[in-house]
Specification:
alpha+beta; five-stranded mixed β-sheet; 25% strand
Length: 114
């Protein structure tokens, strides 16, 4: 009997590597959230959050403002960190800009709103 016990692998989990990859990928897979907030009437704000800290938010904002002919600012939020705010509904424009500039991959962008 002891020979058989030695040949059987003990507690082999075929999904152990996949679960480890998922947990590490889940923590490193940070999304960039692009949202729209309704102001008054037809006015709205587009917010971009979740960009990596290594990027210069002010330079990205300057390029976004120049590209889309809108005004904007960088706001410091205690929970979310730095958030870029732009005037108007710029969700699709911002997402295509971030992908074309190579800042974020397309599968890492989440667009929220109505």
């Amino acid at each position: 009997m002891s020979e058989i016990d030695l040949q059987i692998p003990s507690a082999f989990d075929p999904f152990a590597e996949a679960n480890a990859e998922d947990s590490s990928a889940g923590s490193t897979k940070e999304y960039v959230h692009i949202r729209i907030q309704q102001r008054n009437g037809r006015k709205s704000l587009t917010t971009v959050q979740g960009l990596k800290k290594e990027f210069s938010y002010n330079k990205i904002l300057k390029d976004l403002k120049k590209e889309f002919c809108c005004n904007g600012t960088v706001v410091e939020d205690p929970e979310l960190g730095q958030v870029i705010q732009l005037q108007g509904d710029q969700r699709k424009n911002v997402s295509t800009f971030l992908v074309q500039a190579g800042i974020v991959k397309k599968d890492r962008i989440k667009i929220h709103g109505f």
